[in-house]
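DATA SHEET
Item: assembly model
Revision: 1
Owner: S.N.
Input lines:
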Amino acid sequence: MKEQIVTILTELRPEFDFTHDGVDFIEEGMLDSFDIVSLVDELESHFGIKIQGIDVIPENFSTLDKIETLLKKSGAA
Amino acid sequence: MNLKFKNKRIAGILTILPKRVVTFEEEMGNYNFPEKKSLRLKKIMGYNTHRVAAEGQCSSDFCIQGLQYIFDNGLLLKNEIDALLFVSQSPDYFMPPTSNLIQGHFGLKHDTICMDINQGCAGFELGLMQAFMLLEQESVNKVVLMNADVLSPKVSIHDRNSKPLIGDAAAITIVEKTDDPEDIHVAVKMDGTGAKALIIPAGGFRMPCSEETAIEHEDEAGNFRSLNNLVMQGDDVFNFVQREVPPMIHELLERAGMTADDIDWYMFHQPNKFMLNKLADAIGVPYGKMPSNIVENFGNASGVTVPTCISYNLGEKLEQESYQMCLAGFGVGLTWASIIMKVGNLSFNRIIEY
């Protein structure tokens, strides 16, 4: 699942490397608020899920682990 | 705050839109954003065209045009009006009240209560609440609720957070007494600690407009705006709406003894399609019951969005039919409010252009 997430992230922001562990995508300015909305749109289409509006907060998109956790919570297999 | 009313109805709705149509593509070159991302913004948020007032047109002009249409078409007599409510964030002057100016323009009787209410996104619900309260009085039989905003001049053309969605418009809603004893359930909530999430910082007494306040600055997302411009903390507003609105609707449904399925139409304020679809998911409502086509076609004109949604999506059908509706507005204040009531068999439900 992480590889698919990295692919989607890289398509959104090709200038950044999303494969490094321990990098906070928000603090490092790799994802802004519109990137998060775009990411939600892409993730929902790709995994066939719905992410709840209340979960669309920067903290849930700051690392690959957190995005994966959110996807699993939202029903992605 | 929970409120309940009886024996009140909406008798007619007229939406007045500016003739000028501006497309997203016309303006996207002003944004400090690559074209590909701008088009993605358009798709996800559901932006397309919005209506913008001509230079010099004020909110009151749209109200006067609408009332004149109503009088000319015999939809209401001047001397039937017992109260004139003007709900807006764009009055003609700080003083006098714009509602008094409109009363004076038409020479309405002195026994007309004129009130200006400073409200935005929840302005239709707050206006209806005030109309219902006035109608509790024996001497008040008809209230004219005017929701109007011309905020486009206050939005920076370099602000992709706000410019693509802002629309100018007015709506006139006639509210009156009825023998129908059906309950009207109202919920109104406010949180002034978040008041600066949606603000025009300069131009009031706290910070008068000056050369300094007119200087544009870049924010961290690359938008340019001055202190004279409307600024919206989009993330904060989105999170507040997703956190607060679904529980308010669920509580209101419970109070009304209804389930989400019992409501025919969810006529909600429309900041953008993404936010609205997330709300529909959280409340458990199919998208078809919660139209999101107003921001796409006309823009978000604050408290005018909900009556526009009713006029545009139901039109003359609402002159013959009646539906159980859930109305909701949320935004500036911060304010969030909702109403469950039957709406239908209106004398008129139309849109005109000015």
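QC remark: The CA atoms of residues 16 and 29 of chain A lie 10 Å apart.
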